[in-house]
């Protein structure tokens, strides 16, 4: 069942076909961008470790620099690693039935896999034009056992496109992006349980879905309503439309941890200091304007895919880190990485004092101020 639930090859083909072309650069300039991004990602590693006090990886591999089709292929590989074992589990747990029973079921499954493959490809094509970089948590296993469990990837054409659009200093902007992504690498390599925790919550979320035909039809209707609502300018999004009550609870935990890691990345990239990225304030204000802008269609797609929710996560998470570091210092904040129980809940992200009272202990009036505060 697993391999044919989504036609992954079709997802890659569709995504690649729908891609918008990147900025026009010559071969020599492209080589120069790749070399500088590798060099700056290495430089960012040291800054992140020194600033956060987190151990990180002993000898991290240089960042992998990709173009837009390369980003799509990497993400499809990651989806397969996560989803195919889950689909096997769902198939075994539910037995023959809705999608796998008899010849009719095989036809439904074959058609469904193509439709889903095309949908995944279309979403990836949209995202591939926006993403500047990411830390890929889920990679196909390396038979030699030597490869790291994750990989830092930077999407060169998108970085060049944004720095041209914003008219910012190219070296500063590239280092600024690297600081954010290297923070993610440090989080997931320096906190031994974090990757497994995120994967476990994702697995629970997907396994909590109910494949009862009646429920599926209700969910499809909910999703259609969400599309219409978003097109009309409402608040509907597809993420809300497809959750069971159990999934909502799990999603709350996932949202809290992702808000923390995204906000921590945003905080570090801005707080490392003007001596490292001299034009950081100009970059942040122009980049923020770009995040909030876009055409009506662009805003609709962002809302449907939950990208607006992610933007809110950056802001909420960054506020949480800023407040906690300001009151208990970086050492006090780093207690957040002690264990899954130390992670803030959704409510604690919104009200950091609750987390500090529960985890960080008594607050010191002479704690060092958060970066950016007097």
Please, could you describe this protein's structure?
It holds the Pfam family Zincin_2. InterPro entries: CHP03883_F420-assoc, Zinicin_2, Zinicin_2_N. This is Coenzyme F420 biosynthesis associated uncharacterized protein. It is globular, with a radius of gyration of 22 Å. The protein has helices at 2-5, 8-18, 27-52, 68-94, 102-128, 156-166, 170-190, 194-207, 213-231, 238-241, 245-271, 280-292, 296-304, 307-333, 346-350, 352-360, and strands spanning 64-66, 133-136, 151-155. The N and C termini lie far apart (59 Å). By secondary structure, it is mainly alpha-helical. Helix 4 packs across helix 8 (194-207). Residues 97-108 and 366-374 have low confidence and may be disordered. It has a 3-stranded mixed sheet, sandwiched between helices. The chain is 68% helix and 3% strand. It contains 16 helices and 3 strands. The longest helix has 27 residues, at 68-94.
Strand content: under 5%
- Counting H and I runs of at least 4 residues, what is the number of helices? 16
Poorly predicted segments: 97-108, 366-374
The computed structural class is mainly alpha
Radius of gyration: 22 Å
Can you write the helix and strand succession as a string?
A: HHHEHHEEHHHHHHHHHHH
Helix content: 55-70%
Specify the overall morphology.
globular
The description of the largest β-sheet is:
3 strands, mixed
Tag the structure with descriptive keywords.
three-stranded mixed sheet; Zinicin_2; disordered C terminus; Coenzyme F420 biosynthesis associated uncharacterized protein; CHP03883_F420-assoc; 374 residues; mainly alpha; globular; 3% strand
């Amino acid at each position: 069942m697993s391999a044919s639930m989504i036609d992954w090859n079709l997802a890659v083909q569709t995504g690649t076909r729908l891609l918008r072309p990147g900025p026009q650069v010559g071969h020599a300039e492209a080589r120069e961008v790749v070399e500088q991004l590798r060099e700056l990602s290495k430089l960012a590693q040291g800054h992140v470790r020194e600033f956060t006090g987190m151990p990180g990886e002993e000898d991290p591999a240089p960042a992998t620099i990709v173009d837009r089709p390369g980003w799509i292929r990497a993400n499809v590989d990651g989806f397969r690693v996560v989803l195919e074992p889950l689909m096997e589990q769902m198939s075994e747990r539910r037995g023959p039935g809705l999608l796998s029973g008899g010849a009719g079921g095989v036809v439904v499954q074959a058609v469904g896999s193509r439709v889903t493959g095309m949908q995944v490809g279309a979403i990836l094509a949209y995202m591939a034009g926006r993403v500047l970089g990411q830390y890929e948590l889920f990679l196909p296993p390396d038979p030699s056992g030597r490869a790291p469990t994750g990989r830092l990837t930077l999407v060169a054409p998108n970085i060049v496109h944004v720095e041209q659009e914003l008219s910012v200093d190219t070296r500063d902007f590239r280092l600024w992006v690297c600081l954010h992504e290297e923070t993610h690498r440090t989080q997931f390599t320096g906190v031994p349980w974090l990757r497994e925790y995120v994967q476990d919550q994702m697995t629970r979320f997907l396994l909590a879905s109910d494949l009862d035909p009646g429920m599926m039809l209700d969910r499809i209707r909910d999703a259609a309503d969400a599309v219409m609502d978003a097109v009309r300018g409402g608040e509907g999004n597809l993420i809300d439309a497809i959750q069971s009550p159990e999934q909502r609870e799990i999603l709350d935990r996932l949202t809290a941890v992702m808000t923390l890691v995204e906000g921590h990345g945003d905080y570090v990239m801005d707080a490392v200091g003007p001596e490292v990225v001299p034009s950081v304030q100009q970059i942040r204000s122009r980049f923020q304007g770009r995040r909030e802008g876009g055409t009506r269609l662009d805003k609709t797609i962002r809302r449907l895919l939950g990208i607006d929710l992610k933007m809110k996560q950056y802001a909420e998470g960054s506020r949480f880190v800023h407040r906690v570091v300001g009151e208990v210092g970086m050492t006090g904040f780093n207690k957040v990485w002690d264990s899954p129980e130390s992670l803030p809940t959704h409510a604690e992200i919104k009200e950091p004092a609750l987390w500090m009272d529960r985890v960080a202990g008594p607050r010191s009036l002479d704690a060092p101020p958060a970066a950016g505060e007097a």
